Amino acid sequence: MKTATGTFLLLDGKAASEALREEIAHSTIGVKEKLGRAPHLAAVLVGEDGASKTYVASKVKACESVGFRSSLVKRPAEITEAELLEVVQQLNADPEVDGFIVQLPLPKHINEQRITLAIHPEKDVDGFHPVSLGRMVLGLPGYLPATPNGIVELLRYYGVATSGKHCVVVGRSHIVGSPMSILMSRNTEPGNCTVTLAHSRTADLPSITRQADILIVAIGKPGFITADMVKEGAVVVDVGIHRISDATRSKGYRIVGDVDFTSVAPKCSAITPVPGGVGPMTVTSLLLNTLKATR
Ligand code: GUN
C-alpha cells in the first residue's frame, strides 16, 4: 500500500483466512467421510457482553463457511459457577462435540481459571488449558492458542522472514502475549526470533519497541503505539481491537487497534490493519484446532 509518506505491505488477515479456510473446507470433506458427520465446534457464551457476542457470532459463521457444525450454548450472566461447570462437563462428555470454547471474559463471580481447568484437554480448542500450554512449551503436538497461532500463520502466509530477527511482544496476557513470545522463539519457521516480552512495568518502553524488527502489540490500549516507538522498516502486528466513539460514522463509532495506524504504517515494511488483520486469523486458527480435534 502506498501513502504520501511511505510504502508498506498490508498483512491482510481476511485474504490469508480465505486461503486457509479453503484448505480447511477441503480437509473437512475427508473428515466427514471418515466420521460420518461434520466436525463440530461448540461455543459457550455467558451474559450479554457486546464484544463477546460479536466474536462468538463470527466463530459460528466461520464454522458454516468451512462445512463444520457449530452449537451456541447461551447462558445468562447470573449463572452460578457450579452450573457453568456442569455445562462444561456435559460438553466434555458429548461424543458428538469435537471441541468447545467458553468465551472470555466471564462475569466477575465466576473463576475463569476453574472453568478453563475443567475443559477436557482433548477438547480444548482455545489452547488455554495448562496441558495445551505445557505441550506448546515443550514443542509437543497439541492445540496452539488461537490468536498467537493465527499471527504465526499470517506471517507464514505473507512469507515474513523471522529467523534471527528481534521480536518485541508488548503485553504478557495468558491468551496472547506470553504464548506469542514462546511461539516466536521456537526452533521452527516462522520462529527462531530473539524475543523480548515487554509489559506495563517495562522501563523506557519506546527504547525497547524501537529495537523491534517484528513488533507484536497486545496491550489493550487504543492507539498506544505511536510512530516514534517504531523502527523504520519494522513489521507491526496489532492485536488490539477497540470501539471508539465517532460522530462522523453512521454507526457512531469506529474500530481501532493498539497501534496508531495512520502515523505508524508509513514507517513499516508490513503492518496488520484493524479490523481485518489478526481478528479473522484468530477465528481461522480455532477452525484449524477443531479440525485437529477430530483426529
Ligand atoms: N476472549 C477474547 N479472546 C478470546 C479467545 O480467543 N477465546 C475465548 N474463549 N475467549 C476470548
What does this structure look like?
The radius of gyration is 19 Å and the shape is globular. With 295 residues, it is α/β, with parallel strands linked by helices. The longest helix has 23 residues. It contains ten helices and eleven strands. It has two domains: 85 residues, Leucine Dehydrogenase, chain A, domain 1 (Rossmann fold); 135 residues, Rossmann fold, CATH 3.40.50. Helix 1 packs parallel to helix 10. The strands form three sheets. Strands 1-11-8-7-5-6 form a six-stranded parallel sheet. Strands 3-2-4 form a three-stranded parallel sheet, sandwiched between helices.
Helices and strands, with pairings:
Elements: E1 9-10, H1 13-35, E2 40-46, H2 50-66, E3 69-75, H3 81-93, E4 99-102, H4 112-118, H5 130-138, H6 146-157, E5 166-170, H7 177-185, E6 194-198, H8 205-209, E7 214-217, E8 235-238, E9 242-245, E10 253-256, H9 261-264, E11 270-271, H10 278-293
Parallel strand pairs: 1-11, 2-3, 2-4, 5-6, 5-7, 7-8, 8-11
Antiparallel strand pairs: 9-10
Helix pairs in contact: 1-10, 2-10, 6-7, 6-10
The structure holds guanine.
